[in-house]
Design brief:
single chain; about 290 residues; alpha+beta; eight-stranded mixed β-sheet; three-stranded antiparallel β-sheet; 7 helices
């Protein structure tokens, strides 16, 4: 990389942070401000070492920080490059199907209703019925908001307040999805196609703001629910509500790696801890 590198700055001798952290911060800023574009090659380790007056090992530590953050990729003999996309939205269905290729399938979901999970499961379970997939056990846990109690969302737009009629509509949606998941999985057990097939559903009083899927304790999918204003029919009358856009929100994928310090491994561990903490404390049994 021969062009001017002045935008990478210099190390600050008064900064208490280690030199490797300072270098990582400068490269990260260049990537996020698009001074270094997706696909661009980073300066070589010798170039960076010379620029900052440090040993190559210090540069290596800086690059490793960026690699674990999924900002760069390193290629043997070629150097380091800005990742083409630092994180991209993914489709859940093929990952659900891949999870069913394992003998023991575990799926944890937290979110609004579980409609997307119900629909994605339907395709995988159809393949179990016809023998194309053959897991031995399936265990699904669903964690959703209790729409029988006051919620901040969804709400009536005019008053920006909880409205029992709006919640009744939301409860029908969540109940339909949760019951669908229960029925689909239980059917496989009833047919004797799976040695063990269980679904547990618990509810809590917090408003749903994001969705989370944990597959086989190896992959996490995470997405935010944007709040949108739209008009729906409530008891036959149009009403403007603040609702959650759920089905089409992008999901971001994180996976466990052999490196315990990797971004994906840490994100999955934090997600699992969050899910288990809510499940075992403020969540209570769903009366389906």
């Amino acid at each position: 990389m021969s062009e001017n590198l002045d935008f990478l700055g210099q190390l600050d001798p008064d900064d208490p942070k280690q030199a490797s952290q300072q270098i990582a911060n400068k490269l990260r800023a260049a990537i996020l401000t698009r001074r270094l574009l997706p696909g661009d090659k980073l300066p070589s380790q010798p170039e960076l070492a010379a620029r900052y007056g440090v040993a190559r090992e210090t540069v290596k530590r800086a690059l490793e920080l960026l690699r674990t953050e999924r900002l760069i990729v390193t290629r043997q003999g070629s150097g380091a490059f800005v990742r083409a996309q630092t994180q991209r939205a993914v489709e859940l269905r093929p990952h659900i199907e891949a999870a069913f290729e394992r003998p023991h399938v575990t799926i944890d979901f937290a979110g609004f209703s579980g409609e997307t999970l119900r629909d994605a499961l339907a395709e995988a379970l159809d393949k179990v019925r016809v023998g194309r997939l053959a897991p031995e056990t399936i265990a699904v846990r669903v964690l959703i908001s209790d729409m029988t109690v006051p919620m901040a969302l969804p709400s009536r737009a005019e008053t920006q307040a909880d409205d029992p009629a709006v919640r009744e509509r939301a409860e029908r949606i969540t109940r339909r999805a949760a019951d669908g998941i229960i029925d689909q999985v239980a059917e496989l057990g009833d047919l004797g196609l799976i040695r063990s097939a269980t679904v547990e559903v618990r509810v809590h009083r917090a408003s749903p703001l994001f969705k989370l899927y944990i597959l086989n304790n190896e992959e996490v999918f995470y997405g935010f629910y944007p709040v949108v204003e739209r008009t729906v029919s409530i008891k036959g009358e149009p009403m403007a509500i603040y609702d959650l856009m759920g089905k089409d929100v992008p999901l971001f994928h994180y996976a466990v790696t052999d490196d315990d310090a990797s971004h994906g491994t840490q994100f999955l561990e934090a997600s699992r801890q969050w899910f288990d903490s809510v499940w075992s404390t403020i969540a209570y049994r769903y009366d389906g």
